[in-house]
Design a protein that fits this description.
Helix content is about 40%, strand content about 10%. The protein folds into two domains: about 40 residues, no CATH class; about 140 residues, L-fuculose-1-phosphate Aldolase, CATH 3.40.225. It contains seven helices and four strands; from the N terminus they run H-E-H-H-E-H-E-E-H-H-H. It is globular, with a radius of gyration of 17 Å. The longest helix is centred in the last third of the chain and has 20 residues. With about 190 residues, the protein is of the alpha+beta class. Strand 2, helix 4 and strand 3 form a beta-alpha-beta unit. Bound molecules: zinc ion (ZN). Zinc ion binds next to loops. Zinc ion (ZN) binds next to loops.
Length: about 190
C-alpha cells in the first residue's frame, strides 16, 4: 500500500509499504516514523478482497470525481459507449450506506458484493477495480472513470444491445488489455518516467 500521508501525485516506488495479512507493516522504514504508516481503511477494504479472491493480484480504489458522482446513483454502468462495454457483466454494486469502512468486516461485505466479478461500484463512495497486476487494476480504474463520465454527461443515452455489447467487450477485454492501457497512460502522463 501507499505510505500514509503521501499524495498520489508525489508517490514513488519507495513510498509503497508491504502489509502483512494481519495488517502489520513489513517495512522497517515505517516503524516508528509515524503513528499510522498506512491508511488503515484501505487495509480494511483491500485485505478481505484478497482473502476472498486469491485470483486477484491487485485492487485499486480512489475517489475519482466522475466515478464517485456516478456511485451516488447506486446503479451499474449501462453499456452506452465503448468504454462501458468493458465492464458489462463483470461489475457489481455494493449497495450499502457503509461509506466509511471502519473494520475488515466492511471489506468482507464488499468482497461478498463483488462475487466473481472483476470490479465493484461502492454506493455513494466510488469504485474499486481489480486486476492480475497493480497496472491492470489502475488501468481499469481509469477506464471506469471515463465510463462514469460518459454516463453522467449523456443526456438521453440509448443503450447498446447485449449482443453488440458482448462483441465489443470480448474484443476490448483481453489478457493484455489492462497492461496495454496502463502503458499508454504511463507514456502520456510520465513521458520521462
Ligand atoms: Zn474510499
Amino acid at each position: 500500500m501507499l505510505r500514509y500521508g503521501v499524495s498520489f501525485h508525489e508517490a514513488a516506488l519507495e513510498d509503497t509499504v508491504l502489509v502483512s495479512p494481519g495488517g502489520d507493516t513489513v517495512d522497517d522504514r515505517s516503524l516508528g516514523a509515524v503513528a499510522a504508516p498506512i491508511n488503515i481503511t484501505g487495509y480494511h477494504i483491500h485485505h478481505p478482497i484478497h482473502e476472498a479472491r486469491p485470483d486477484i493480484e491487485a485492487a485499486a480504489h480512489v475517489h475519482a470525481p466522475y466515478a464517485t458522482a456516478f456511485s451516488t446513483e447506486r446503479r451499474l454502468l449501462e453499456p452506452i459507449n465503448q468504454e462501458a462495454t468493458q465492464f458489462f457483466e463483470d461489475h457489481a454494486l455494493f449497495d450499502d450506506e457503509e461509506v466509511q469502512i471502519l473494520s475488515a468486516d466492511g471489506g468482507k461485505r464488499i468482497a461478498v458484493a463483488l462475487e466473481d466479478n472483476s470490479h465493484v461500484i461502492l454506493a455513494n463512495h466510488g469504485v474499486l477495480t481489480t486486476g492480475k497486476s497493480a497496472a491492470e487494476a489502475v488501468a481499469w480504474l481509469v477506464e471506469m472513470e471515463r465510463a462514469s463520465e460518459v454516463a453522467l454527461k449523456a443526456q438521453r443515452p440509448v443503450r447498446l444491445s447485449d449482443e453488440a455489447t458482448r462483441i465489443a467487450r470480448d474484443d476490448l477485454v483481453r489478457p493484455w488489455s489492462g497492461w496495454q492501457i496502463y502503458s499508454y497512460l504511463i507514456r502520456r502522463h510520465l513521458p520521462n518516467g
